[in-house]
Amino acid sequence: MKKSTIWLLTVLMALTFCGLLYIQIVYMESMIRMRDDQFTEGVRRSLYAVSSLLEQDETKYFLEEDVAEVESSTVYSQYGGTPHLGGIKYSFTTHSGLIGDVTLKADADKIYKLQSDQSNVASSYNSMREELKGQYLYQKGIIDDVIINIMNKAADRPIQERADSVAVRRYLTKELENNGLGLPFEFAVVSRNGHVYYKTGGFDNVGPANIENSMFVQSLFHNDPASKKNYLKVYFPSKNKYILSSVKFMIPSFIFTFILLIVFLYTIIIAFRQKKLTEMKNDFINNMTHEFKTPISTISLAAQMLNDPSVRKSPNMLQHISNVINDETKRLRFQVEKVLQMSMFDKQKGTLRLQDVDANSLISNVVNTFRLKVEKYGGHIEAQFNADDAIVNVDEMHFTNVIFNLLDNAIKYRKEDVAPELKITTEDLQGGRLRIIIADNGIGIKKEDLKKIFEKFFRVSTGNRHDVKGFGLGLAYVYKMLNLMGGSITAESELGKGTRFIIILPLLSTSDDEEEATKG
Q1: Crossing angle for the helix pair 359-376 and 396-412, nearest 10 degrees?
Q2: For residues 9-32, b (16+ Cβ closer than 10 Å) or e, as one string?
């Protein structure tokens, strides 16, 4: 698959996921806003109903008080009324001299009982009706007096009496349930200046952040003067939880969307890795073909020269051809070994043939062998064996290849106009460890490439230079082998100044001590 196709699919899927998430978020916000509006409207209706009920209670209080006072001091004294079972009994005398009794009952069924010691009751009906009309007008005047009394005296009563805390809680609970809001609440009654007359225990826990969203205020007794206004404040601690409960069904949708997004991102990353791996493998095959083609061509040419009788007659020429064939065979074998190193990445430590090796001696042999190659480019290689104890438990062949690969890299990535200077040092470390440092004055490695140099098939870019050949396996092989042998390797480099590879290996004495401690 082309990289452009992968990028196109990535962009399309990214836009799709963004659109899906946007729709879900907008829908969720709309649901939360609608639920919040419904909650606010329900609370306002409930608080208004509570305010109305408190006003009705106060009106009832004044009616009962004033009617009792009027009945006891005015009506009875003026009309000689006496209490009567089922209502109030009034006695009166008409202009025509008729004497009668009237009983006003509370059930609004007015039963008029006229007792007269005269036989002509029908003739006095009209006169009695006029008398009752006057009675009605009088009672209406009393009610007007009660209303004026409420307006003048109500605001002076203590708010604790006008809005009893028990009654307020009862009314709030009932009205909120009627509006479908069975939530726990806290409330307080406060004055216009913020003075708290009484409050519930949890009202003190209201933080500034919750006042705007979860606090509702309702004025009490609308007809009170502005200076004597009181307010009912109600706070709902679980309002946010109640609002969010309406969108709980959206949570699985978000979870599934994020799972799909993660799977998609993982798939894209894998696709790019596979694309990169494919390119590396193609580069590896091309390099391998070139590396194999050169020694094979040289060996083939030498074989053809051996068929020439004149060449066979010259011992010097035969010796030269023999050396060429031998050198190219070694070169070919070395390239084959590098290819076979790929199989070592997935094998376990059991495939290694570990043995006790003097690292100083082994490194000295590699340096002597490699010296001619360095001097070929006018350079110099120096070895300093500062480690007194350099016995390590490693695979000799693979450890030799590790040192050789690092030195070979130093020559490959040398500066064209500067003679290569290589230095290899061994040092003792605390904790029974050996440190080997291989430094060069080459072109160096970029910081972004330094993190990837130990990856398989990765090759550092060399700009316009075309003489650097390889498979991208050398440093990956070095890293893998050192890990299998219980060691580690790190790299330090500065572009244009050179590179230092630092190898850490446990000494044999430390390994033996650990083994004995484990057995003990």
Answers
A1: 30
A2: ebeebeeebeeeeeeeeeebeebb
Q: What one-letter code names the amino acid at 360? A: N
Distance separating alpha carbons of residues 458 and 401, to the nearest angstrom: 19
Q: How far is it, in rounded angstroms, from Cα 183 to Cα 236?
A: 7
Contacts by residues 24-28 (CB-CB < 8 Å, ≥ 24 positions apart): 24/250, 24/253, 24/254, 24/257, 27/250, 28/247, 28/250
Secondary structure (DSSP) of 191-256: ETT--EEEE-GGGGG--HHHHHHHEEEEEE-TTS-GGG-EEEEEE-TTHHHHHHGGGTTHHHHHHH
Q: Distance of alpha carbon 382 from its chain centroid, rounded?
A: 55
Instruction: Tell me which amino acid residue 214 is.
Output: S
Q: Can you give 131-158 as a three-state secondary structure string?
A: HHHHHHHHHHHHHHHHHHHHHHHHHHCC
> Is 233 within 8 Å of 210 (Cβ atoms)?
no
Q: Which contacts qualify for 29-32: CB closer than 8 Å, 24 or more apart?
A: 31/246, 31/247, 31/250, 32/243, 32/244, 32/246, 32/247
The strand pair at 186-191 and 82-84 is best described as unpaired
Can you give the pTM of this predicted structure?
A: 0.46
Structure tokens at 346: 């997935």
Digitized pLDDT (tens) for each residue of the chain, 520 residues in all: 677 787 888 888 888 888 888 888 888 888 888 988 898 999 999 999 999 998 888 888 777 766 666 555 544 444 444 444 444 444 444 344 444 444 444 443 443 444 444 445 555 666 776 777 777 776 666 666 666 666 666 667 888 888 888 989 999 999 999 988 888 888 999 988 888 888 888 777 665 555 666 788 998 888 788 888 899 999 888 888 888 887 777 888 888 888 888 888 888 888 888 887 787 777 777 777 777 777 788 888 888 888 888 777 788 888 888 888 887 787 777 777 666 655 555 555 446 788 999 999 999 988 888 887 888 888 999 999 999 889 999 988 889 888 988 998 888 888 888 899 999 999 998 888 999 999 999 998 888 888 888 877 676 665 444 444 555 667 888 888 898 889 999 999 988 889 999 999 999 865 555 555 444 4
Which residues, at least 6 apart from 446, have a Cβ–Cβ distance to it below 8 Å? Answer: 460, 461, 495
Written as six digits, the tokens of 58 are: 């106060």
Question: What 3-state DSSP class applies to 282?
Answer: helix
How many contiguous H segments (helices) and E segments (strands) does the chain have?
15, 14
Distance CA 410, CA 430 (A): 28
Q: What Rg value do the Cα atoms of the chain yield, rounded?
A: 53
How far, in Å, CA of 234 to CA of 185, rounded?
7
Q: How far apart are CA 369 and CA 367, in angstroms?
A: 5
Helix (H, G, I), strand (E, B) or coil at 503: strand
Q: Which two tokens stand for residue 358?
A: 């003097």
Per DSSP, 455 falls in state S
